[in-house]
UniProtKB/TrEMBL annotation:
Transferase keyword on record: yes
EC number annotated for this UniProt entry: 2.7.7.7
Family, per entry: Belongs to the DNA polymerase type-C family. PolC subfamily.
Species of origin: Marinitoga hydrogenitolerans (strain DSM 16785 / JCM 12826 / AT1271)
Gene name of the record: polC
NCBIfam families noted in UniProt: dnaq, polC_Gram_pos, PRK00448.1
Protein name per UniProt: DNA polymerase III PolC-type
Record keyword Nuclease present: yes
Function as written in the Swiss-Prot or TrEMBL entry: Required for replicative DNA synthesis. This DNA polymerase also exhibits 3' to 5' exonuclease activity.
Length: 1408
């Protein structure tokens, strides 16, 4: 039977494509057409042995001739235990006999002693054993590339098949203690080989039935159609498993995301998915197949990048830490590039996993100690002899490249006196690129002298002179190397670098290349990149720069060193270094360095100055970093051993990284990887030099992803995130988190010494880890700002206001509430937070701007009494403004005091005021009163900047920072990245694999920003660096604010965050009060006409049903004007303030109204007054049902954050007869609004609604002035029909944000016209720049609503007309900021009627 037919009968597919036959007797015999190498033969035998549970033998069907050995030698010895020695054998045929030529005596002796190995290879490969002999030949140079083929006969065994389980032993062994039903999820147990998913395309044309296995990384369950779609991956590829009806339900209930399963099923094309999917027949759970670190001693990773490294890493912090802990590593470091934003998260996860976190950062460093003069010891005067020189070379690396042209000029007494110019014939050809740059061809050098002839002449020419060159290190290092090689002399000649001189003395944009310096110094044109021409012009540059240096007070050449501090860091090369934190002092120093790098020294990207790094190194460990470090860069540029040693001495430890991990722009191959031989040499030099200084050398992984297979995801992130015009590329490198054994192998590849490998991989990394203290970066305790006497002031202000409002003695309910609150506030140190907020609110109010509260602060009566919020949290009550008579309604008959019936004071007869929203204090600060109070405030948008400035003045500019935010790659963006990667770089990715890669990318940091109004306050006795670094938002140097480097959420428990947001409502009410003279605080909160528009538009005098399709009158009312909330109003028809508060809560929550409360109301299970609308409802209801108060509070906290209910919560609720609908409602909620926030918003909205009903033109003027950004002047001036047509047009299609805003404005304009009011066009003398003006029953449109007219131009018209009338259109143009396009728009709108084009000249003007 053919082998392929045999496999199809057993497995239903052929994984190998072996050509030959199979026989089965007492053993299985494979007769192959072509031989296998030893490694592959072992794998095949193992595979068939496990499949058939019998011995396996392999023979060849036909014999091969000797030439087969010559053609396939490298393939045949691949995997042999003696492969390293067998590679020294060169097979040959002489007189029809096989001989092996050997160039290495040790290898010759080795193979002679082990002839059996050669016999085995020959007999296995040829089918017989020929005669052969060994011949020692030291002259041969074996080029193995000539032997390598891109195939392995008819059989090619992948790594994936090497790990395949033929008989499902993983299930039998790992789950043998379980019952079959525990791991068979669908169908029956099966024992068949799994196909790697990336091989499915090859297999599915042979059979429709397949077996695959992998991890379920995502699933979707359609509970209506009962369809389960599971996405599974084995990291080679991904595919969809699709199940229906009973199978779908069973699988959904028994398989979770993250579990590993094995599936047998049919592969079929799914029209809905537009993909091949597998319809399962049998599914079993299997053990997770993950790497383990089973080496006895463990290493420590000291260089890893998490997703916080902007758009560069896909390594999740939690995955890294959990994996390191699981492998038994005692510590792990995260060294994100440029940032330390992972630190708080990193600490929390590491603490949980009981592993030491090592904080660090890979920073960009510039050596700002850049030199102008080198090798200067004695004083050297200006009148010294100079030789200005330049070399043309075959390449950039002085260690391996050659000089092809010498050019030099001698300067004596400031004059060029001699010239040296020689071409040199190199030992190798000049690369084409160098020929293009220099114009020097190989033909030009054929008859040139050798460097042995030219170099002594050049050395004679430069004797007794100071050398000068532009970028002098380059040329000097070539000279030094070749003098050593040719003349065996170690030179140390003084030299000057004109590049550094020009950086210090000339302020040029875009670099200081020789041609740019020549141009700015006015030295004319020259033939660049020929040595003699470059030398001549550099001489003139040098003389000019010397004159400038003298003008700066430089008296000797040695004094040029004083210019070095004038070199702008922006002009210097950046290198990478790694910094680890040893202790808390180091952490603070790192924060300072990161802050300066992001602010003071930010240029294109972050920058750390080397001298500042060294000055702040206390508590830090400085590592050399990746191959973009200063040592490797200088080594590549020909630095001497002394120079290398001087650089090594800067560091606390030296890093070496696996050869296959290195990415570097100075590449020697197309895939971007560096020449491994060169890197090995460098690493060995580095190791030996570091040992001389007793500096530990460590092997680090530079990990950017967890597993080797995740490289695709990082590549997709890099390619996908590239913006238009941005060039990004990926390299053929491996930057995954390695086990100890994997790292030891990488070290051995470099040093070929097990002792060194263990030293740098295990011993030294653990020593470094032991130097690091375990540091808690944030205490988790609040550090409030310091205001002297805050406790007493809060106490006094509260009692004073309470007595003013409620009289003395205070009602017991008021007194008890205040005492309870003050005790919690003051005892926990939160008084300063209240006083801080009070001062800011008072300042705004004194400046004429009202402040609204947000969040739960309205739950605090102390906040109310201090004027921080207008929301009164007491139970509904009456209060007499005169005699202070009060009456509290505590029986639950009313939820809001505003809904109480009108009542006169029984004592003095005047009308009682009504207040109280019945909100428990515990919502704000918990039953222990220890929850940090979060005081959020809404300032007028016009006043927000002034409010922030006041806060800075109150606490100090260096103690107030904007709350930083971190933006990460969202789900859709990640998907887009991978799609782009697939299209541009990796065609053929299936959609499930795209989704998998996108999920790995998701959460990677994109950029930073700032909270719209959040301010972080640092106490005066501390520095911000005690908590976080700082930076510009989004690294924008033009920003006038600095933010916390950490996202404000992670430092919220340590620093006070004050939300001082800009909001339209306070601006709205201020403008309405200004227009009408009505004080907003005096508006009756139970005005019946106002209340009616929340259920009908009758009070507006119009029916909006037909044209605007709404029955309510809340268009333009904050919180109630959207189509969604209007729909809620139409369904619920609220008649009370309390009902409006509930609707506000329902509309602001997530999964609170739709698919939750609305369904309960419609089904009759609960009423609008019973459903959960605000977070307070949960706590109050549970306490009412008998649950413990504290437990009720914690349930509320969990539900409001979308965390659902724990089993013990449900048990307790059911025990206390909480209805099932209430429990289920809690489980659906993702976010819940606080009642205090809803009450504050509704209070504002109701007042604005009052003006809409009673002062309509003031309302519309204010609305269009404050919120009418998309006011379509052209359409609106055409009248009602044009507006209606535009509304219908917009509603007929999908809209962008601007169009949605335009639709809202048009609807309100239409409503205004229906109410009998109109619009007037802008008038050159009557219109305001920005605000709508009331004229009779009309609104005059301001200039800013003219299309394409900006605010400055609009203001300029008003200013100009105040000076004098406009004489003409020409005069208007000359005196204002408008342009001709605006003039044409004005003409079309009729604004310029009667105004002539030109100024009219008065003939008699000159005679008068």
């Amino acid at each position: 039977m053919k082998i392929s037919d045999f496999l199809l009968s057993k497995l239903e597919f052929d994984p190998f494509n072996l050509q030959g036959e199979v026989e089965i007797n007492d053993f299985l015999l494979l007769k192959l057409n072509n031989p296998l190498n030893e490694s592959d033969e072992k794998k095949v035998k193992k595979f068939f042995s496990r499949l058939m549970k019998m011995p396996v033998k392999i023979i060849l069907l036909s014999k091969k001739d000797l030439s087969y050995i010559l053609e396939n030698w490298i393939d045949l010895i691949n995997g042999n235990e003696e492969e390293n020695y067998l590679r020294f054998l060169l097979p040959d045929i002489s007189e029809n006999e096989l001989i092996f030529r050997v160039s290495n005596k040790f290898a010759l002796e080795r193979v002679k002693k082990n002839r059996k190995i050669i016999d085995n290879i020959l007999s296995r490969s040829l089918g017989y054993l020929p005669d052969y002999e060994f011949v020692f030949d030291e002259k041969i140079a074996i080029d193995y590339k000539n032997f390598e083929t891109n195939k392995k006969g008819d059989y090619e065994l992948s790594e994936e098949f090497d790990n395949v389980i033929v008989v499902d032993e993983s299930v039998d062994n790992n789950i043998e203690s379980k019952k079959q039903d525990d791991y068979v999820i669908l169908g029956n147990k099966f024992k068949k080989v799994s196909i790697p998913l990336d091989k499915l395309n090859d297999i599915m044309y042979q059979t429709s039935k397949v077996v695959i296995e992998g991890k379920v990384f995502y699933k979707e369950y359609n509970d209506r159609a009962i369809i389960l779609t599971m996405y599974i991956t084995d990291n080679t590829d991904s595919i969809i498993i699709k199940a229906f009806k009973n199978s779908a339900e069973r699988l959904n209930n028994n398989i979770k995301e993250g579990e590993f399963i094995k599936v047998e099923g049919k592969i079929t094309y799914d029209e809905y998915q537009k993909e091949y999917v597998i319809i399962p027949e049998n599914i079993m759970k299997i053990e997770a197949k993950e790497r383990i670190d089973n080496f006895e001693k463990k290493r420590v990773e000291l260089h890893a990048h998490s997703k916080f490294s902007a758009l560069d890493s896909v390594l999740d912090v939690e995955d890294l830490v959990k994996t390191a802990a699981k492998w038994g590593h005692k510590a792990v470091a995260i060294t994100d590039h440029e940032v330390v934003q992972s630190i708080p998260t990193f600490y929390n996860i590491a603490k949980k996993e009981n592993i030491k976190p090592i904080y660090g950062c890979e920073i960009n460093v510039v050596n700002n100690r850049a030199s102008i003069i080198y090798n200067f010891s004695d004083e050297i005067p200006f009148d010294s002899n100079f030789v200005v020189f330049d070399f043309e070379t075959t390449g950039l690396d002085p260690n391996i490249e050659e000089i092809i042209e010498f050019g030099a000029v001698k300067i004596i007494n400031g004059e060029i006196t001699d010239v040296f110019h020689k071409m040199v014939k190199p030992q190798k050809n000049v690369p084409q690129k160098i020929q293009e740059i220099t114009g020097i061809t190989n033909e030009m050098l054929i008859n040139a002298p050798s460097i042995k002839e030219v170099l002594p002449e050049f050395m004679s020419f430069i004797s007794d002179s100071v050398l000068v060159a532009h970028n002098a290190n380059f040329d000097y290092r070539f000279l030094r190397r070749w003098v050593k090689e040719i003349m065996n002399i170690e030179i140390k000649i003084p030299y000057i670098d004109t590049l550094s001189m020009s950086r210090a003395l000339l302020n040029l944009k875009g670099g200081h290349s020789l041609d740019k310096v020549v141009k700015v110094l006015g030295l004319g044109n020259f033939e660049h990149h020929r040595a003699h021409e470059d030398a001549k012009i550099t001489a003139h540059v040098f003389l000019k720069l010397l004159e400038k240096a003298k003008g700066r007070g430089i008296r000797t050449l040695n004094d040029l060193i004083n210019l070095e501090k004038m070199i702008d860091f922006k002009k210097l090369r950046k290198y990478h270094m790694t910094v680890l934190v040893k202790n808390r002092t180091g952490l603070k120093n790192l924060y300072k360095l990161i802050s300066k790098a992001h602010t003071e020294y930010f240029y294109r990207d972050t920058t750390v100055l080397l001298n500042e790094l060294l000055e702040n190194r206390e508590g830090l460990l400085i590592g050399s970093g990746c191959t973009k470090n200063i040592i490797f860069e200088e080594y590549s540029r020909g630095a001497s051993i002394e120079e290398i040693n001087a650089l090594i001495s800067l560091f606390d430890y030296i890093e070496i990284q696996p050869l296959d991990s290195i990415e570097h722009p100075d590449k020697d191959s197309e895939n971007g990887n560096m020449d491994s031989k060169k890197v090995k040499e460098f690493y060995k030099l580095l190791y030996n030099s570091a040992k001389n200084y007793n500096i530990p050398v460590v092997m680090t992984g530079n990990a950017h992803y967890l597993n080797k297979e995740d490289k695709k995801a990082r590549d997709a992130l890099i390619i996908g995130s590239a913006t238009k015009g941005q060039k990004k590329k990926v390299y053929n490198s491996n930057k995954y988190f390695r086990t100890t054994k994997e790292m030891l192998d990488a070290a051995y590849e470099i040093f070929e010494d097990k002792k060194i490998a263990e030293e740098i991989v295990i011993e030294n990394t653990n020593k470094i880890a032991d130097l690091v203290e375990e540091i808690k970066p944030l205490e988790g305790n609040l550090h409030p700002p310091i205001i002297e006497g805050a406790d007493d002031t809060v106490r006094e202000l509260t009692w004073e206001t309470a007595k003013e409002v409620y009289g003395e003695p205070l009602p017991e309910i008021v007194k008890a509430r205040i005492e309870r609150e003050l005790k919690s506030i003051i005892n926990h140190g939160y008084a300063v937070l209240y006083l801080m907020a009070q001062k800011i609110v008072k300042k705004s109010n004194d400046d004429g701007y009202l402040v609204g509260s947000r969040g739960s602060v309205g739950s605090s009566l102390v906040a109310t009494m201090m004027g921080i919020t207008e929301v009164n949290p007491l139970p509904p009550h009456y209060i007499c403004p005169e005699c202070k008579y009060s009456e509290f309604i505590t029986d639950g008959s009313y939820e809001s005091g505003y809904d109480l019936p009108d009542k006169k004071c029984p004592k003095c007869g005047i009308e009682l005021k009504k207040n109280g929203q019945d909100i428990p204090f515990e919502t704000f600060m918990g039953f222990e009163g220890d929850k940090i109070p979060d005081i959020d405030l809404n300032f007028s948008g016009e006043y927000q900047t002034r409010a922030h400035k006041f806060i800075e003045e109150l606490f100090g500019e260096d103690h107030v920072f904007r709350a930083g935010t971190i933006s990460t790659v969202a789900e859709k963006t990640a998907y887009g990245y991978v799609r782009k990667y697939a299209e541009e770089y990796a065609g053929g990715l299936k959609n499930p694999e795209i989704i998998r890669l996108a999920k790995i990318i998701e959460g990677a940091r994109r950029t930073t920003g700032q909270h719209p109004g959040g301010l972080m306050i640092v106490p005066k006795n501390m520095e911000v660096f005690d908590f976080t670094p700082i930076q510009f938002p989004a690294n924008d140097r033009k920003a006038n604010t600095k933010t916390t480097h950490f996202d404000y959420h992670v430092i919220h428990d340590d620093l006070v965050k004050l939300d001082a947001l800009g909001h339209d409502d306070p601006t709205f009410l201020k403008m309405l009060s200004d227009l009408t003279g009505i004080e907003y605080k005096n508006i009756k909160m139970d005005d019946k006409k106002t209340m009616s528009i929340f259920s009908s538009s009758k009070a507006l005098g119009v029916d909006l049903t037909s044209d605007l399709r709404t029955t309510v009158g809340t268009l333009g009312i904050p919180e109630f004007g959207t189509q969604f909330v209007r729909g809620m109003l139409e369904e619920t028809k609220p008649k009370t303030f309390a009902a409006l508060v509930r609707i506000s809560g329902l509309s602001h929550g997530t999964d609170v109204w739709l698919n939750n409360a609305r369904d309960l109301i419609v089904s009759g299970k609960a009423t609008v007054d019973e459903v959960i609308a605000c977070r307070d409802d949960i706590m109050n209801y549970l306490i009412h049902k008998g649950l413990d108060k504290k437990h009720s509070f914690f349930i509320m906290e969990k539900v409001r954050k979308g965390k659902g209910l724990a089993p013990e919560d449900e048990d307790e609720m059911k025990k206390n007869n909480v209805p099932e609908w209430f429990v289920n409602s809690c489980k659906k909620i993702k976010y819940l609004f606080p009642k205090a926030h809803a009450a504050a918003y509704v209070s504002m909205a109701f007042r604005i609604a009052y003006f809409k009903v009673h002062y309509p033109l003031a309302f519309y003027a204010t609305y269009f002035s404050v919120k009418g950004d998309e006011f379509n002047t052209e359409i609106i001036l055409k009248g009602k029909n044009a507006i209606r047509n535009r509304i219908f047009d917009l509603k007929s299609r999908s809209l962008d944000v601007k169009e949605k805003n335009e639709l809202t404005v048009l609807e309100i304009a239409y409503e205004m016209i229906l109410r009998g009011f109109g619009f007037l066009p802008p008038d050159i003398y009557k219109a305001d720049a920005k605000n709508f003006i009331i004229e009779g029953n009309n609104l005059r449109i301001p200039f800013i609503k003219v299309p394409n007219l900006g605010e400055k131009a609009a203001i300029s018209i008003v200013k100009a007309r105040e000076e004098k009338e406009f004489l003409s259109i020409e005069d208007l143009l000359n005196r204002t900021g408008i342009n001709k396009t605006t003039v044409e728009t004005f003409k079309k709108m009729g604004i310029l009627k009667g105004l002539p084009e030109k100024n009219q000249v008065n003939l008699f003007e000159g005679l008068m």
